Predict the 3D structure of the following.
Amino acid sequence: MTTCALDPVADPRRLVVLDAVHNFRDLGGYPARDGLTTRWGRLFRADGLHRLTPADIELVRGLGLHTVIDLRTQTEIDAHGRFPHEHIPVRYDHLSVVDTTWNMVERPTETEHEFLVWAYTDMLEQGAPRFARALNALAVPGALPAVFHCAAGKDRTGLLAALLLGALEVPRSIVLADYALTAAGMQRMRVWAEREYPEMSEQMAETPSQFMAALPEALGEVLDEVARQFGSIAAYLQAIGVGNATLDRLADELLAAA
């Protein structure tokens, strides 16, 4: 048996290897409901796409994207720019999940786990309408292939990916393992910044570890609480404005026989 048959998360097709974007991943190949599998090449998750180099743009062009969903704040977009839609025509949706990025001064004593549980819980409460809009946008006919992203592809992107995969009944262990892949992406970002962007490298070195951590057990605790309160991830999504028709369309577009 191949490695990817034993562990679909480790499939070598998952990572889209780029120079200046470090956490661009295909969400295909995961077992889901009714014995189906998520389709390759239909939906991607990523970090800051404003960093795409000319060579990266050519590689991304080959993915045939129709939609880009940007989960960053307007302040982040103003400071760093956005997806180069002038080079790759796409539908661009800006759906900032939070109004401001985190301020560690407000919560200085928490462990990484405690901080992430608080942050993800707060994000689900604050960003619920925007998560719903993102999923509804992905279900629009012709929206796929699509990519959704934030700055690091870790927290806002990680939550949206977990909600989507959970709604498709991808096993919890795989949802968390997909999230855990971000740790390697963060390391790739560190190495690249040290080589290409010293100012960014210094900022990352000064950033509290709580902001940089990718802890599957923290995300798992949050998802478990959502399931406890609502019964399932799909029921939570219905409660925040994602209808059954939308969930069915996403399943139709994203799932296929293994």
Remarks:
- The two ends are 15 Å apart (CA to CA).
- Residues 3-257 form a domain with the Protein-Tyrosine Phosphatase; Chain A fold (CATH 3.90.190.10).
- The longest helix spans residues 112-126.
